[in-house]
Design a protein that fits this description.
Layout: E1 2-7, H1 11-22, E2 27-31, E3 44-45, H2 47-56, H3 59-64, E4 68-70, E5 72-77, E6 80-85, E7 92-94, H4 97-110, E8 114-117, E9 121-126, E10 131-135, E11 138-147, H5 154-158, E12 174-182, E13 191-196, E14 200-208, E15 211-219, H6 220-225, H7 230-238, H8 242-247, E16 252-253, E17 258-260, E18 271-272, E19 275-277, H9 292-313, H10 322-346, H11 349-361, H12 363-373, H13 379-395
Parallel strand pairs: 1-2, 1-11, 2-8, 5-13, 11-19
Antiparallel strand pairs: 3-7, 4-7, 5-6, 9-10, 10-11, 12-15, 12-16, 12-17, 13-14, 14-15, 18-19
Helix pairs in contact: 1-4, 1-9, 2-9, 9-10, 11-13, 12-13
C-alpha cells in the first residue's frame, strides 16, 4: 500500500508529489495521458509562481527549453495601451506548457515518485483500511488520495464534492481557445500582452524562442460563434485587433488549435476522509488574471504539509484536514477578488476604456495591482488606496495616454 496516490500528473499533481516525496512518503502518481501532451494554457507564470518553480529546482531546465523571463503585463484597448511592470525587479516566466509538464514530470521521477502514464482511473473506494483504486493498469492501494485531475475531476465526483449544478457569477460562463505561431518577426520585449476586445480577451505570450501563444478567452456567446468552425471563429476574434493581425503577418501555425471550458469550477469542499483536491480540481474562477499555475503550485505545498501531519498522526478524517481548506481559501482570496473585478470590468465597455486610460497614466498603480493580484498585499486595500489616483488618471486630460 502506498502512502499517497495522486491522480493527475500535470502541474499540481507533480508539485505535490515532489513535496510529499521530499518528506519521505511513498508516493504513486497516475496520469491517464501520455507525455508530452498538449493542454490549453496561457503559459504565463506570475512571480510568486516562478518562486515556487525555483523552489522545486526546475527553472534552469525550463530556461534551457526556451522559457523566458516575464517583466510585466500590457493591456491594449481601442488604440490605448497601459504597461505595468512587476515591482522590485521581480520576474515571472513565459513557458511552453509542453516544456513545463515534461520538466515537472522528470523532477517527480528524480524525487522518487512512482509515476505511471497511460493509467486511467475508473473508480476509487475507501474500504476502512485505505483507498482501493481501480485503473486501466490494475488495482492500486493507498492510505491517502489526492485529486489533481483538473477542472473536470473524476476524483472530486467520487468524493461527492461536486457542487449541485454549475456555480457561476452573473450568468457568465467563459471558455479558452489557444494556438501557437512561429513569428516572422520575433517579439523582443518581456511582457504578456492582453488585447481587450470587449467580452473577450487575447493573451499573447512569447513562451518559446520566436514563438507566440495566442490564447482567447470568451463567454458562452463568443464560444457559440465558433461552433462548427473553431479555427475560423478563433481567427475572426484575432481579426478584430489590427495590432495582433500585424504581429501575426507571415507567421506559421505550430500547434493544433484547442479549446477548454467552462472555466469556473466551484466545488462544495476540497477535503474528504483521507482525501483532498489540489489545482483546478479544487476550484477555479477564470484565467483572466493568469494565476492558475501559481495557485496550483502554492496550494500543493500547503496540501503536502497537511497530508504529512495526517499520515503521521493517523488523523485522516475530514475535520483533521480542515486546516488545508482554510489555508487554501485564504491564499486564493486575493486572486479571486481581483479576478471578479476584472470579469465585471470586461463586461462593461465604458469601464474597460476607463481602466486602460487610468492605468496608462498611472503605471505605478498598475504595478501595485499586479503585486496585489500575485498575493503581495490585500487586493481590497490596494484597490481602495489606488482609487483616487486611478480615477484622476481616467479623467485627466493633461497627460496623454501612452
Amino acid at each position: 500500500m502506498d502512502d499517497v496516490l495522486v491522480v493527475g500528473g500535470s502541474v499540481a499533481g507533480c508539485a505535490i508529489s515532489v513535496e510529499l516525496a521530499a518528506r519521505g512518503l511513498g508516493v504513486r502518481l497516475v496520469e491517464k495521458g501520455q507525455f508530452p501532451r498538449e493542454k490549453v494554457c496561457g503559459e504565463g507564470v506570475m512571480p510568486n509562481g516562478t518562486d515556487a518553480l525555483r523552489k522545486l529546482g526546475v527553472v534552469d531546465a525550463l530556461m534551457e527549453r526556451g522559457a523566458r523571463a516575464m517583466h510585466g503585463v500590457a493591456y491594449h484597448h481601442n488604440g490605448k495601451s497601459a504597461v505595468g511592470h512587476f515591482a522590485n525587479g521581480r520576474t515571472g516566466l513565459c513557458v511552453r506548457r509542453l516544456a513545463l509538464d515534461q520538466v515537472l514530470a522528470a523532477r517527480a521521477e528524480q524525487a522518487g515518485v512512482n509515476r505511471q502514464e497511460g493509467a486511467e482511473v475508473h473508480s476509487a473506494v475507501h474500504d476502512g483500511q485505505g483507498w482501493r483504486v481501480t485503473t486501466s493498469a490494475g488495482e492500486l492501494r493507498a492510505r491517502f488520495l489526492v485529486g489533481a485531475d483538473g477542472a473536470r475531476s473524476k476524483v472530486r465526483r467520487w468524493l461527492g464534492l461536486d457542487a449541485a449544478g454549475e456555480a457561476h457569477a452573473g450568468g457568465v460562463l467563459r471558455y479558452g481557445v489557444r494556438q501557437h505561431f512561429k513569428l516572422a518577426r520575433p517579439v523582443v520585449d518581456n511582457l504578456v500582452h492582453v488585447h481587450l476586445l470587449g467580452r473577450a480577451e487575447l493573451y499573447l505570450t512569447p513562451s518559446a524562442d520566436g514563438c507566440l501563444n495566442v490564447a482567447l478567452l470568451v463567454d458562452r456567446r463568443g464560444m457559440a460563434r465558433m461552433k462548427g468552425d473553431l479555427e475560423g471563429g478563433y481567427r475572426s476574434f484575432i481579426n478584430q485587433d489590427p495590432l495582433v493581425c500585424r504581429l501575426l503577418e507571415g507567421a506559421t501555425v505550430t500547434s493544433e488549435i484547442k479549446a477548454c471550458g467552462p472555466l469556473r469550477i466551484s466545488p462544495r469542499d476540497v477535503i474528504s476522509h483521507a482525501a483532498l483536491l489540489v489545482g483546478d480540481a479544487a476550484g477555479y474562477v477564470d484565467a483572466i488574471t493568469g494565476e492558475g499555475i501559481t495557485t496550483a503550485l502554492h496550494t500543493a505545498s500547503m496540501a503536502a504539509d497537511v497530508i504529512e501531519r495526517a499520515l503521521k498522526t493517523g488523523e485522516l478524517h475530514a475535520p483533521a484536514l480542515r486546516s488545508y481548506a482554510l489555508a487554501r481559501a485564504e491564499a486564493v482570496r486575493n486572486h479571486e477578488r481581483m479576478t471578479e473585478v476584472l470579469l465585471f470590468t470586461s463586461r462593461h465597455p465604458w469601464l474597460l476604456k476607463g481602466m486602460v486610460r487610468g492605468l496608462s497614466r498611472r503605471p505605478d498603480i498598475f504595478t501595485r495591482l499586479l503585486g496585489a493580484n500575485d498575493g503581495d498585499e490585500n487586493v481590497a486595500r490596494a484597490l481602495l488606496a489606488s482609487a483616487p489616483g486611478f480615477l484622476m488618471g481616467m479623467v485627466s486630460s493633461r497627460q496623454p495616454a501612452t
